[in-house]
Design brief:
InterPro entries: Ribosomal_mL49 (IPR007740)
GO molecular function: structural constituent of ribosome
Main location: mitochondrion
Strand content: 15-25%
Number of helices: 5
Structural class: alpha+beta
Organism: Caenorhabditis remanei
Family: Belongs to the mitochondrion-specific ribosomal protein mL49 family.
Largest sheet: 4 strands, antiparallel
Order of helices and strands: HHHEEEEHEEH
Radius of gyration: 39 Å
Shape: elongated
């Protein structure tokens, strides 16, 4: 019984190998072991994808896109508004520098809170508030000089500033944001 199953298995495997490595697949001049991948991997056939255009209602997507045009400056009965906002005036064009407003018509003033020196008594870090003025075009150093003198006159103590001319930014340490905002509104920006 066992011998008959081994003979049938051997006849099945040799028959399969004969059909796979038949003489029609392997040419007589070419030997199988010289390029075995040629016969082991099936030939590649090209298939081209079909393209179909489906109509899409883009109105749902357009609602989510940002507005390309900045809206006009809002009109109010009196200035400054209760929030302290004033529109830009023509006096801002007379300076050697210009501060562009953001798309929401506010000044580009940003408040940062950074870790400062270690307090030796409490062994805790002190924090300092920095105000960054962005979008300064033209002579950034003249803007920084005017801002620093204005702040020192108002506060009565020295104010530290740092100018990044390439990015058009001024960092101010030791002055509140509202006072810096007042300076730029008074200049007409």
């Amino acid at each position: 019984m066992l011998g008959s199953t081994i003979r049938s298995f051997a006849s099945r495997t040799t028959g399969a190998s004969r059909s796979f490595f038949s003489t029609s697949a392997v040419r007589k001049t070419e030997k199988l072991w010289e390029n075995p991948w040629k016969y082991a991997i099936p030939e590649k056939t090209k298939t081209l994808a079909t393209v179909e255009e489906i109509p899409v209602d883009w109105s749902y997507v357009e609602r989510l896109m940002p507005i390309e045009v900045v809206p006009e400056v809002p009109k109010h009965e009196s200035y400054p508004t209760p929030s302290g906002w004033t529109p830009p005036s023509g006096a801002g064009k007379t300076h050697p520098y210009y501060v562009r407003r953001r798309p929401d018509h506010l000044l580009p003033l940003y408040l940062e809170r950074k870790r400062d020196l270690l307090n030796e008594k409490t062994l805790d870090f002190d924090y300092v508030e920095l105000v960054t003025v962005r979008s300064v075009d033209g002579d950034v150093f003249a803007c920084e000089q005017d801002l620093r003198t204005y702040l020192q006159e108002q506060l009565g103590h020295p104010v530290a500033t740092h100018v990044d001319e390439l990015k058009g930014r001024i960092k101010v340490k030791g002055a509140p944001r509202s006072l810096i905002e007042q300076f730029f509104y008074s200049k007409g920006f």
